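ugh ok fine here u go
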Amino acid sequence: MTEYTTVSIPKDLADRVEETIEGTSFSSTSDLVRFLLRSIVIQHQRRGELTEAEFEEITEQLRDLGYLE
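structure:
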């Protein structure tokens, strides 16, 4: 059985995500977040260790999406 944890995001971001996923195969914000995180993790596991530049790029992307301040 898969265990889950909770990730908090700002309500305004969650509202924007809900609008964005309308008409897509994503049924919820959680579905989209799981997809994005899985994609990032798989991409970097294939290449090996995450470089500082890659970490900064991911951080900036998450900041632009509103996940980080």
